[in-house]
C-alpha cells in the first residue's frame, strides 16, 4: 500500500513515483527519524540540528560539510530541510537499497543457475563436482560430500536456492 503523500519536486514525476513506492510502515519510520532530527519541533531541520544528530551517529562533519549536505537535500533553498524534502531524501535511499538488493538477488540467481545444470532448482553432488572441476578444483568425493553437508541445511541431499543464498550471504559478511 503506497503512502498518500505528494512530494513537490523540480524533476517532475520522480517524487510522486517515490512516494507511491513507500509503504505506510516506511513512512512511519521516516516520520520517527524526522522527529529525531527536528530537535526543536519546528517542522524543519536546520544545519545545527543535522550536525547534532550526525555527532550522535559518531560522525563529526565540519560547517562546510554540513552546508554541502543541507544543499543536497534543501530543494527550496530556504536553509532548512522540511518534511517533504526529508521524505524525498529517505525514499531515494530506500529505493536505492531495494535496487541494490534486487541486483544482488539477480546475481545470486545467476550463480545458482551455473551450479544447477539440469535446471531442477536443486544442486546435487555431481553438479557441484562438475562446477568445481570447471573452476580447476579437483576435489575428492569425500570433499564434495562434506561441502554438500555443510550447505544442505535441511538434510535432503540437495542444495536448494534458499540454502545456496544463505551460504553465499554468510560468506559475504
Overview of this structure, please?
This protein is mainly α and about 170 residues long. Helix content is about 65%, strand content about 5%. The strands form 2 sheets. A two-stranded antiparallel sheet has the order 1-2. It has a two-stranded antiparallel ribbon with strand order 3-4.
Features:
63% helix; 8 helices; mainly alpha; 173 residues; Recoverin, domain 1; two-stranded antiparallel sheet
- What is the end-to-end distance? 32 Å
General form: elongated
Count of DSSP-assigned helices: 8
* Shape-level CATH architecture of the largest domain: Orthogonal Bundle
Low-confidence stretches: 1-17
β-strand number:
4
Tell me the count of domains.
2
Mean pLDDT: 83
Secondary-structure element order, as H and E?
HHEHHEHEHHEH
CATH class of the largest domain: Mainly Alpha
How large is the share of residues in beta strands? Answer: under 5%
Keywords: Calcium, Metal-binding, Repeat
GO molecular function: calcium ion binding
Pfam family, one: EF-hand_7
InterPro entries: CALM/Myosin/TropC-like, EF-hand-dom_pair, EF_Hand_1_Ca_BS, EF_hand_dom
